[in-house]
Amino acid sequence: MNAGNAGGVHRDLLARHRAVLPDWVALYYAEPIEITHGEGRHVWDAEGNRYLDFFGGILTTMTAHALPEVTKAVAEQAGRILHTSTLYLNRPMVELAERIAHLSGIPDARVFFTTSGTEANDTALLLASTYRGSNQVLAMRNSYHGRSFTAVGITGNRSWSPTSLSPLQTLYVHGGIRGSGPFAHLDDAAFIDACVADLRDMLSQTRGVAALIAEPIQGVGGFTSPPDGLYAAFREVLAEEGILWITDEVQSGWGRTGDHFWGWQAHAGNGPPDMLTFAKGIGNGASVGGVVARAEIMNCLDANSLSTFGGSPVTMAAGLANLGYLLEHDLQGNARRVGGLLIERLRAATAGLASVREVRGRGLMIGIELATPGHAAAVLEHARAGGLLVGRGKFGETLRVAPPLSLTVAEAEEGAAVLERALHAADAEAGGG
């Protein structure tokens, strides 16, 4: 296909997309791209352009594109049976649940599989509100927990919250963003003390709160996070009233931060959470989510339930193969080593740019916060032109950098160089140099 025909096919697909899909389904880039295939840390579009992928389908391609171990497991399972539902025993589901229960750090853990992080958070909120007999929930400012009616009701980020209606009464707590807000000027210890005092004051004016749900590192919020230990300090206060702690690990789990396997482990001073939600990376593109909870919480529902697609034999086979690969190849260690190098390279590259407010993150979960509205979109375009895909966050103007955890040092250097050129090109367009 020649370039002219490829462009025509692309424009036809875009027109068809706009004719049948909702206006609120966002597309990146002024000229959206159709990704047709991938391998390792690279993807190709329908016009044959090759990109280094630093976003992984929103932190979902966790190990690598077209990972042979995963594709083989999926093909073999699909050749046996695609679907049964949770009404029948399912060996891959039991095996993956056993591994996740052990890895979660939650004692006497039970696992329920869903098809997405949104559904996982929905389930956790159902469990918490039933267990505690309350629909009051604490959530963090600037948070994001999914697009369902319930999850939107606890999302503390206006850009992703299309309605104020909710089945829950949600109260928003300080602390998820270290660099802004009324406590930003304090040192870490004083910041935690102030946030704990605010939490205590809020609880003194409420009754029977069910749970606190929090992302250890806020994903859509721009990879922001509190000082280590904040949620441990919160847990001490919550435990006084029996309030549950739900950690949303949809983006921060599976070793992505390098330092820890789960984001909550940076806040482990008062023990593990009561519930943990996960999704995205565990399936490496297969639709897998889930909840881990202490048995007494998971078993508190007094009505029958099931999942038609949660725990599908095919997605469980993908999850097992993917998790096995991640652990056997120490991708958490790779995220720590290569991610540390990438963060330092990006900090050095942006040191002289007034348009860059902060480079933050851990492992291969890195945010570049920009100072000028609209700047992130321009940087995305220049990065794409240079052969690099990155994401955006909604706290300020933030670029989200989250490659597959198998990223090599050479690929980290290559991606950092493209981002450096993209940032300078966007600055020059804006008149910054």
Which strand-content bin applies to the residues? 15-25%
Given as residue ranges, the uncertain stretches (5+ residues, pLDDT < 50) are none
The helix fraction, in percent, is 25-40%
**Class derived from helix and strand content:** alpha/beta
Distance between the termini: 40 Å
> What composes the largest sheet?
7 strands, mixed
- H/I helix tally: 13
C-alpha-based Rg, rounded: 22 Å
| Secondary-structure element pattern, one letter each | HEEEHHHEHEHEHEHEEEHHHEEHEEEH
Q: Note the overall shape.
A: globular
What's the mean pLDDT score?
Answer: 93
Extended strand count: 15
**Spatial order of strands in the largest sheet:** 4-10-9-8-7-5-6
Task: Explain briefly what this protein structure is.
It is built from 13 helices and 15 strands.
Write up what this structure looks like.
There is one protein chain. The protein has helices at residues 3-20, 56-59, 68-80, 91-104, 117-132, 149-152, 188-203, 230-240, 295-298, 313-328, 331-350, 375-385, 409-429, and strands spanning 35-39, 42-45, 50-53, 109-114, 136-140, 169-173, 211-214, 244-248, 275-278, 289-294, 356-362, 365-370, 388-389, 391-393, 397-401. The protein has 433 residues and is of the alpha/beta class. Strands 4-10-9-8-7-5-6 form a seven-stranded mixed beta sheet, sandwiched between helices. It has a four-stranded mixed beta sheet with strand order 1-2-3-13. A four-stranded antiparallel beta sheet has the order 11-12-15-14, covered by helices on one side. The two termini are 40 Å apart. The relative contact order is 0.15. The model has no long low-confidence stretch (mean pLDDT 93).
